[in-house]
# Entry
Amino acid sequence: MTLSENEQQARLLVQALPYMQKYENKTIVVKYGGHAMGDAELGHAFASDVALLKQSGVNPIVVHGGGPQIGSMLKRMNIESKFEGGLRVTDQATVEIVEMVLAGSINKEIVALINQTGEWAIGLCGKDGNMVFAEKAKKTVIDPDSNIERILDLGFVGEVVNVDTTLLDLLAKSEMIPVIAPVAPGNDGHTYNINADTFAGAIAGALRATRLLFLTDVPGVLDKHGELIKELSVSQARELIADGTISGGMIPKVETCIEAIEAGVEGVVILNGKVKHAVLLEILTKGGAGTLIVR
Ligand SMILES: Nc1ncnc2c1ncn2[C@@H]1O[C@H](COP(=O)(O)OP(=O)(O)O)[C@@H](O)[C@H]1O
Ligand SMILES: CC(=O)N[C@@H](CCC(=O)OP(=O)(O)O)C(=O)O
# Structure
């Protein structure tokens, strides 16, 4: 016997109930990466997922990136840009563009998309409400030729040194959904450009979030045969980095996941932001959608 369309829809809605109960009043930080943006339909689907979570009693917080969008604006302005160790070398002219693109246009685009659903979003960056403070990143790399460790001077690239959750705690009790750009001040008065994954990890850690979701452009962490790994412990994740299965941009992402879990986040999920409604499928369905990393 085949189920009528009505019955199928009703079943789906009923199946979401235990997950709505599980996440009621819990904080879910969603990192929305620049590669997952750009498609209008996907953008609307993302905004409606976040809106639905808020409406069902969850406390969603969006942290967004915008690497490719910063890249195109720098190109339009004829400012050269390069990456070292996965981070954008950021001089004064670059940090001004980074702040303009991240805390300006991209932030407000996401806010507008969520507001169009009838929910209320508020656009912020680390500067608002003294939320995040940064200091100059102290990143080192091993020179492959000499095998000697060298310190990278990345200019105004920052590392998060403090998160004050006063504003976010206040917003959690309100109708507002925070949408945060990864830009923060330093005690030295400079503005710092922070990798959006790292920034999302720091926010989730400070809030002891129940879930931290990373929306990227692959289904999750893949094994040696390219198959999706549904669940990983911190130690298994470390082994996959050590044996080279996890490489490139996935290394800092998984390292951020590990740090977030060690800071008190219950579980981190890496999933494909190019799949429509990826957030809802992950949070409100049985199968989940990507790779769950837990302690
Ligand atoms: N084991 C792995 N599983 C999945 N992706 C991997 C793995 N190892 C390396 N990668 C690479 O990591 C990329 C995701 O990292 P990154 O490009 O930094 O994401 P984003 O720009 O979304 O933050 C994937 O597109 C893939 O090329
Ligand atoms: C220091 C550093 O590299 N900052 C990033 C911030 C944006 C970002 O991380 O965006 P995605 O998540 O889309 O990659 C940058 O300038 O590109």
